[in-house]
Amino acid sequence: MYIYVKDDVSFNFTEYPADLLLYFSYSKISPSDCRAYFTALGFADFSVLSSALSFRKEILFSNARTCLGISGTSISRENLDILGNMCCTLDGSYIQNSDPYILEKLKNCPDFTVDQVNAMEVLLLSGNTTYGSPADWTINTLENLGILPLYLRSSFWINFTKREKKRFLRVFIKELRSNGVPRSKIRALRQEAQKQHRTKRSVGSGCTEGEITQVTVNNDAFPFGYNVTQFDACLSVQTLKDNLEEITDKTDDSALQEVILHKLNQAYPGGISDTVVQMLGPASRAATAEDIAKWNITTVDTLSALMKPSDGEWNPDLSKAIISKYLNGAGNSLGSVELNSVGSNLCALDTSTLSSISSSSLRGAGALDISNCTTEKKKALFTVAQSAFSNRNAMSRTTISNTNYQLMQPYLGGAGLTYLRSLSSSNISMDLTTFMSLDPNVIDALSVSDVRGLLGVNLPDLVTYQTQTVVENWIQRQLQSDLDTLNIGLTGGRSTPSTTAPTTAAQNNATAGGSGATTASSGGSGATTASSGGSSATTASSATGLGGLSLCSVTGLHILIVALSTTVLQFLH
């Protein structure tokens, strides 16, 4: 993208998608047009910039400061309107010191740093915003803040009553879930909102917060208001069994999830059936190896339910235990359905297990995510993939078809040098994301010509990745003169070795570690003497040139050859 539009300024900024403007070369924009440019850019999604291009955020804001005449860390309301979504890239100092209107712009941001959250809280708690003094805040304040309450912490939430928070969260959390907000964020929200309203532990262990019933569970704010002690005391085993799926779906706190698993072990002392295991949802992530040992995982439906990415990440050892337990079942194997189900958890398995995957299973599965696999595991999967997709629409033995490349693409992290060189001559044009996923050791072995062939039309993108460790190491291994042939501005290669004078080189070979002299006479009856270290000499003579030469030892012959070579070189010089 950057390559195609960075120099194209031939159209009006408002006529094309705002995200394209992120890649423009600002030097091509006249000062009279800069405000129009940044106004249009303000509608862009700055999060689409890859990590390799994240530096452009700073460059864009620096240019905006110059264009709009911004000095210091205070930005006016007018300029905030022009910057638009660029406000999402500002650090905390700008958030605190700019017009409070900045909060309205921040409502459009997809995420925040800790520094930005701190600044928003300072600004809100100052009372100098349209939301007024914290003492006057109500549930309407929460509703008017848009998405911001998701990120704010306990210092903000303590300004609301427990009743206000519960009413708000009942609606807010439901909206967050429907919009696909990660469970980790919802869990953090609940924890921060509840910190100042923990129910004090009583001397006894009775339920004081209110028995958990089906009605309680159906409230979208559930389990807000219950700490671990009260959750344990107020949730009966029978209520848990009757409402398991609903309870596990709403319970994100790991401590509460542990209570759920403990009660299930009480409810099913002989082991937990496949049907119940399938309803564990996010609570499964709080399990220990001992818990998993009590689960029945005999069907692919159970395996799929446990591996759902939306329920959270698995500890590799635990995911391995789950998959292995399934594979130990009669007739179970890593077929196509299983491969699709386990997803990236595939990398938790041993290399030997991965090597045993059949070609037909891999061929029938979707593209697998093996980015978390070790190099050895990637190599094993690449070998299986080669067998699965070999000779499918291939053009010849030495080239690889585009169809075959696309099928193999997810597994190229395990590709060797020979395969990549075949790709290099196959007119593929590999994208940089795929290139960066290759084995670093194999990348180091690629020549400049290999890389040119691999990347094709995407070659200019390599410049934006030249500070990445993998690319930087490759550059340092290449001659700068070879890099220059790419004509994309790569720097940092090795200098071209200078040519050493032949006489000097020969003399250095003939004389090792000392100041001795070497003389030679060819074609006559003179003597040849070679001295090493200045401490010894060996003499060989010939009456008729080289014809009747008699040497005393192999060492003498070696010295004679060196001396003769030196004489010839000196003569030529």
Automatic annotation (TrEMBL):
Keywords: Cell adhesion, Glycoprotein, Membrane, Signal. Residues 493-539 have a biased composition (Low complexity). It comes from the Eukaryota. Its main location: membrane. Residues 490-539 are annotated as: Disordered. PANTHER family: MESOTHELIN, STEREOCILIN RELATED. This is Mesothelin-like protein. It comes from Chanos chanos. The gene is LOC115817064.
